[in-house]
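Figure 2 data, in text form.
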Amino acid sequence: MSESVNVSIIYYSSTGNVYSLAQAAVEGAEKAGAQVRLRKVAETTPQEVINTRDEWVQHLRDTADVAEVHLDDVEWADVVLFGTPTRFGNPASQLRVFMETTGPLWFQGKLAGKVYSAFTASNTPHGGQESTILALANTFYHWGGVIVPPGYTDPVQFQSGNPYGTSHVAGEGAPGDVTLQAARHQARRAVEIAAAIKAGTTA
């Protein structure tokens, strides 16, 4: 990769599945030669609700050292990948809260021209995965972003089966090898497209 590419991978995860996808995306982006920041959004769920699920409590402990996202992480990036569980076919509110703070960057035109992509998880098959990714794309349109889905651009996509973005069925357990490969490919592809865009604009 001749052009240096900065990647921010911004996610929300309650019990760790989306976090696993985010980690795989970090691996894919770094392998493609990018500088990568992994950032979580702030947890806004009341503690008494979190305490109803042991795995939720444990995941918060396990990821206490992951830095929370700030607007600088978006401004710095050439590529932004967003990860979220699906909530009734939409992104989690925690992620939306952060995205709705980006108005100042949008107003200054600092969100336009970046590459955006998204990944998700749901508890059941077809549990709103595609609609969640498409809902995020609505925001990317407003930002003037370049939306880069994985499509069927790698053999793993014919196994994972979602051209919109990497997705996982949490009810089947932790993300398996195919899903993690798909997340790595998605990030790598986003980096490659961003590098090509940067090369074209600086030529």
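Caption note: The chain has a mean pLDDT of 95.
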